[in-house]
């Protein structure tokens, strides 16, 4: 602790070319003071944006890697910290493997284990760990806490954990991990806080953003997720393919002569809404475009989600609530309307006016339909807050 007040909490969410951050004041419930991101890391013209209340700062920082991006963030945060230190840094870590579910202090031993998982999440895990190393260098006295996107699903049933491959692959870690756990953690806790009777029942949460997945919950626990071994499976996403017959991958190798790097690029960066529309990964652009290809990309997105609503309702043995979150789930009245169309057989009927007005509750059937804005950074900040309290 410094004279200026207790140390602050920084949260980091590192992608391959971006570093999102938030600063929280610790307390019984952490209070967000600022947030922002550095984009185009690895390119020649990285840019930092910082939002602090109504004040927005935009700054070109030239060529940047994760460590220099963090230094640039720190430079902008200095006035905000008013002499206070960063006491804890919380990191979104995409993969906790089989060993880590709950948030944990990132000791050298934990980091060594997480590095062994890099081959399981090659497009996310190395960048997450690079941000941890950068944060250790920048804040040597701070607690570094890892929050795992896989953690929320670790208790799901074996049938949802496995693939029908010979068992030795399961033992080697080829499992259905499921992701977006921090978002499901936040939304399910909000549901429990505001509508406990629903949270105790059968719920589907649809996290629909650039990355998209759905989770089936019984009594607040994940019993199934659309994402699997990697963050590619399940729903089509901005640039990711979603569910794909593995025979397609074999065909790409055998008939198209494509290697792992090319296929990875195709499935992670060139597919999904972008691949189908030939236009954009961005739902707003597709909604405005009016081309037949953009319309078909939206049709496929809607079709796959409706199919999963049916499948998840079956494994839940019925449905009490459907909850939307993520950039598309929270903002697109059109997508929500199309997803709920003709679902009266399930007891799910959308209230068109409430949906257009983006009310928190947008259904008037037996199945409740809700929009709960997600806040993954807050989940991370709470975990750091708890770790700081333990540390005294
Ligand atoms: P990420 O997975 O990168 O966190 P977000 O949750 O921010 O992504 O979601 C981004 C998606 O949300 C984009 O496809 C964007 O077009 C979509 N989106 C945001 N606002 C709207 C809106 N008003 N209408 C339709 N789509 C929207």
TrEMBL record:
User: Which residues are the active-site ones?
Assistant: 149 (proton donor/acceptor)
Q: Which residues of the sequence carry a binding annotation for Mg(2+)?
A: 13, 376
Recorded protein name is Acetate kinase
Source organism (scientific name):
Frigidibacter mobilis
**Taxonomic superkingdom:** Bacteria
This entry carries the following GO cellular component terms, namely: cytosol
Give yes or no: UniProt keyword Ribonucleoprotein.
no
What biological processes does GO assign it? acetate metabolic process; acetyl-CoA biosynthetic process
The residues listed in the UniProt record as binding substrate, with positions renumbered to this chain, are 92
- Enumerate the catalysed reactions: acetate + ATP = acetyl phosphate + ADP
Compartments reported by the entry: Cytoplasm
Annotated site location: Transition state stabilizer? 180, 240
* PROSITE patterns in the record: ACETATE_KINASE_1, ACETATE_KINASE_2
> Per the entry, which co-factors are needed?
Mg(2+); Mn(2+)
